[in-house]
Design brief:
Elements: H1 2-9, H2 12-29, H3 36-66, H4 73-95, H5 98-109, H6 114-121, H7 125-146
Helix pairs in contact: 1-2, 1-3, 2-3, 3-5, 4-7, 5-7, 6-7
Length: about 150
Amino acid sequence: MRRKAVRILNDPDEAEDVLQEAFYRLWVKRYPVKNTAEAAALLGKTVRNESLNRTRRKRSERLDEDIGVSDDAQDEETLERENLLGTVEEIIEKELTPLQKLILQRKEYEGVTLEKIAKDLGMESAAVRMQLSRARTKIREIYRKGHPDEYGDH
């Protein structure tokens, strides 16, 4: 979870704050969860959302201070990465099956091995690998359809 927050925020200290906030929110609301995989998915989603919210707040504050677009190339790169991440996460949320979302989250955000995911889900490793491959392909295809200029598709 920490890696996910650091990847979005580019700040290890703030990522720690996000983790604490996510655990606190889940503790206060005491969501009913059926198993550890569901708890991990809920925590991952909370960490992602809180990280993105903080990034957006920072950007908004910067824009309010600057009253214009920043000339700093690093800020521009951060905004591009944030936009890309937001687009991909929207695709994941709307287009993938619940199983694909869970496998993708555990593999990419939590760093869990395919073998461990397969064991936790009671599936064969090959089936988990296939679901992950299908999820990645679907994300790529949908992204490319929405951004044809980046790939020379007109």
